[in-house]
Amino acid sequence: MAALILSQAISSLTDKLKQFNFQSPSDPIIQLSVSIKAIPAIAWLSAQPIYPRIYWKGRDTEEEVSAIGNCKDFFYEEASDDNQLAMAYQEQRALSNNQDIRYYGGVAFDRTTESWPEFGRARFVLPRIELRRSGTEYKLLVNLNCENQDTESERRNAIDSLASLAAPKPLPPPNKVSLLGRNDRPDRYHWTELVNKVTHPKFIKETPKVVLSRLTQLEINEEINPWMLLACWQGRNPNSFQFGFQFSPDSTFISCTPERLFRRRQRELFTEALAGTTTRGLNQEEDALLATQLMKDSKNSHENQLVRQHIVDVLTPLSNYVGAEETPKVFKLSHIQHLHRSIRAELKPGVDDFQLLLALHPTPAVGGLPKEPAMNFIRQREGYNRGWYAGACGYFNKYESEFAVAIRSALIEPGRINLFAGAGIVSGSEADAEWVELENKLTTILSILTEL
Ligand SMILES: C=C(O[C@@H]1C=C(C(=O)O)C=C[C@H]1O)C(=O)O
Ligand SMILES: [Mg+2]
Question: Is the ipTM of this structure higher than 0.85?
Answer without folding.
Answer: yes
